[in-house]
Amino acid sequence: MSTPMYVPAFFVKQKFAMTTNRYEVWAANPDGSFGQLMAVAQQKRLAFKEEVTFYSDESKSRAVFSFKARKKIDLNAGYDVFDENGQQLGFFRKDFGKSLLRSTFHLEGPGYQGVGQERSQFVAILRRFSNIPFLPIHFDFTSPQGPTLLQIERQASVRDKYTVTVPEQALDFRVAAAVAVGLDALMQR
Fold first, then answer.
1. Domain 9-187: which topology?
2. Going along 1-50, which residue ranges are E strands?
3. Would you say residue 39 has pLDDT above 90?
4. pTM of the model
């Protein structure tokens, strides 16, 4: 089994590409600046069965983790997160019914489970019924007992940029990064 990897804060930046969504995952330095590049990922748009692989760098010579849909074209699809050896690290899924007015996701892994929802109902509705680009989006994932597991905040910018904070030390960095990229990709549908 893979050793859990804890990273308390990091950034996810979307990069422009014509036929794919490309992402860079950067560690956050203590002063809030960008630190070390931790992973790069690429997601094919309009794939029938979603699968995203994260690589150690731009050369894509070493896959370090991934997430993959359990089913083809399923609005409530679940996504398994795997380490570089194919061992499952965690799971997340979009709750399609609850997401009609406010995006909602479920998250689980060894030692934790929780639900994440857009923080602002107003922004959620505005995002669905207007063409205002670049709205900030904030997600708070909490456990049934109440503590925050994960926070994902998208800044208002031309390309998506997320700040991810992980208060729950049992939550593996690779799962948190997969969820942040998954949120971006799945909210576009």
1. Tubby Protein; Chain A (3.20.90)
2. 9-15, 20-28, 34-44
3. yes
4. 0.89
